[in-house]
Design goal:
2 copies of one chain form a homodimer. By secondary structure, chain A is an alpha/beta fold. Chain A is built from 12 helices and 9 strands.
C-alpha cells in the first residue's frame, strides 16, 4: 500500500484515479493540488481526495507517487514547481495525451531528476469534466500506455504500473515517439477530420438546411468534434510533425478516391469500401470486450 | 385504412414499414415480393407480410400503395416490371437514399405513369439487415423526406405521407436535387471519409500496432465504415456530381488546416475547432429529442 499520492488536477482523470485507488484500498492518503480552489473543495467534499494542499513543498513531503492530471500545457510549470521539493523516493507520472513534448518539458524542468518521471497516457475518458464526473471504474479494462525513459529504474516503472493496475487498467509500453506516431493516426487525425467536417458544413450558406438532415451517422462521426478546442490546439501543436505525416497521407488517399469517383470507377471504390469494412470488422473482433459497447443505430 | 400494400424487398426497411402499419391497424393486407424466397417465407412466418406473391401482375391488382425497399440499383427493373400492371389508383413510393437517379430511372420505366410515383427517403436504419431485423418502431420520430414530382397530385402525395405518418415518421419535402445535395454533405461525404480513414490505416505497414490503440473515438468516427460496400458504391456513382462538390470543398478545408498546422498557427486552429464545437452543440440542442440517444464515452 502506498502512503501518500499527490494529484495535480482533480477533475475527471485525476479524480477517477483517486477514486479507483481509494476503492482498491491501495493508498492511505491522497493530496489534491490545483489552480481552482472550488474544484479542490468539491473533490474533498466528494471524498475523492483526503487533503487539499496549497503548498507544493508540503504536498510533496514523503510522497510516494505524483500524478499530473492538469492540461498538458501546464506540465513544465508544474514540474518546475515540484523540482526543488522532489525527494529521492518519489515517482512522478502524468496523464497527457502526447508524450514527446511532455518528455522534453520534463527534461527541462526536472534536470538530473528526470529519472523520477515515468510518462503515461490512460486511454479512457468521458465527455463530462470536473470532480463530479470522476468515477472509480473509468480505467477498468482500459489501456494505460507508459512511455518509460532510459533514466527510469525498473522499480520506478513498476510503481507506476502497479498503481494503474490497482485501477483495473492494462499496462502497455511504447517509446514516446511511437506513442505520438500511433495516436496521431488513430486519435489525433480523426479528431481533426471531425472538426474540419463540422466547420466545413457550418460555413456553408445553407448550413441550417444541412444540419436539419444530419442524423445518427453524422452524430457519431462528429462526436469527437465536441472535444475541448484548447486541448486540441495544444495536441496539434505538440504533435505537429506526426500529425502532418498522417494528414498528408489522408489527403493523398482522398485525392486518389476523388479520381476514382470522377472516373466512375465503381469497382475501385467498392474495393476500398470493402477493405475498410473488413479491417474495421477485424478490429472490432479483436478488441477487448471490456472496451466495447453495443452500437445499434445507423443511418444512410 | 388502406386495403392492400405491396412491398418489394421485405428486409429491415420494408419489413419495418410493414410492421408499423400492421401495428397501427392502417392496412388490411400486405403483400411481399422479392428475389429471395427464403426472405419472403421468413417475413410471412414473422407476420410481417400477409401474402407472398411471385406474380407482379397478381401483386399489383387493386393495390393502393407500393413501396420499393430493394437496393436502389434495382429500381428501374422493378418499375419496368410493374408498369404494365399499374392501375390508375395505385401510388408507388420508394426508400432509396438518393433521389435524382431514382427519379430518372422511374421516368424511363414508367413513362406517362410517372405521376403515380412519389419518391421518398426514410432517414432511419439499423446495422442489422433482413426480415428478422425489422421492428415496428424504426420510424418513430424519424424524418421521411419526400421529393414529389411536378406530375404528382396532392392526393398521391398525401397518401404516401399518411402511410409514413402512421409509422410515426415526420414528413419533410425537398426537391430531388436539393435532397441529393443535402445528403451528399451530411451523409455521403462522412461515409466516404470514414471508409477512407480505415482503409488508409489498414494499408500502413504497422496497421496492427495502430488498431491496437484505436479506442472509442475511433470506433464512433468509423462506425459508418461498417456499412455495405455495394450500397455505397451505388450511392457514390448515383450522386457523383454532388459528392464531388462536397469532397472538393472538404479537401480544400483540410489543405487550409494543413497550412495552419505547418505554420504552428494555434489561434487559427483553435478558432476552427471552437467553431465546429459550437456548431455541433447548436445542432444537438436543436435536433428532436426523439432522434437522440445519450453518448457518454470519449477518448483522446
Amino acid at each position: 500500500m502506498l502512503k501518500k499520492i499527490v494529484i495535480f488536477g482533480v477533475g475527471l482523470i485525476g479524480g477517477s484515479f483517486a477514486r479507483a485507488l481509494h476503492k482498491a484500498g491501495a493508498v492511505e492518503q491522497i493530496v489534491g493540488v490545483g489552480r481552482t480552489a472550488a474544484s479542490l473543495a468539491r473533490a474533498k467534499e466528494l471524498g475523492i481526495i483526503d487533503v487539499i494542499s496549497t503548498s507544493v513543498e508540503e504536498a510533496l513531503r514523503d510522497a510516494d507517487l505524483v500524478l499530473l492530471a492538469a492540461p498538458v500545457a501546464q506540465t513544465e510549470a508544474i514540474l518546475a514547481a515540484i523540482q526543488p521539493y522532489l525527494q529521492a523516493q518519489t515517482v512522478i507520472t502524468d496523464a497527457g495525451s502526447i508524450k514527446g513534448e511532455v518528455v522534453a518539458a520534463a527534461r527541462r524542468a526536472l534536470g538530473d531528476k528526470i529519472g523520477q518521471f515515468v510518462p503515461g497516457h490512460p486511454i479512457a475518458g468521458l465527455e463530462a469534466n470536473g470532480p463530479d464526473a470522476a468515477i472509480d471504474s473509468l480505467y477498468t479494462g482500459k489501456k494505460v500506455v507508459l512511455t518509460p525513459l532510459p533514466e527510469n529504474s525498473t522499480a520506478q516503472i513498476a510503481l507506476v504500473s502497479a498503481a494503474w493496475e490497482q485501477c483495473g487498467a492494462i499496462i502497455h509500453q511504447l517509446t514516446p515517439e511511437d506513442h505520438d506516431a500511433v495516436f496521431a493516426a488513430v486519435s489525433h487525425l480523426p479528431h481533426l477530420l471531425a472538426y474540419a467536417l463540422v466547420d466545413d458544413i457550418a460555413a456553408k450558406p445553407h448550413a441550417d438546411l444541412l444540419f436539419q438532415y444530419a442524423a445518427s451517422g453524422f452524430r457519431d462521426f462528429t462526436r469527437i468534434a465536441g472535444s475541448s478546442p484548447e486541448m486540441w490546439r495544444d495536441i496539434s501543436l505538440s504533435n505537429q510533425a506526426a500529425i502532418l505525416t498522417e494528414l498528408d497521407a489522408y489527403i493523398a488517399q482522398l485525392t486518389r478516391f476523388r479520381g476514382q469517383l470522377a472516373a466512375g470507377d465503381g469497382a475501385a471504390m467498392q474495393a476500398m469500401f470493402a477493405n475498410a469494412q473488413r479491417a474495421r470488422q477485424n478490429w472490432l473482433s479483436n478488441i477487448e470486450t471490456a472496451e466495447m459497447q453495443p452500437k445499434q443505430d445507423r443511418d444512410q
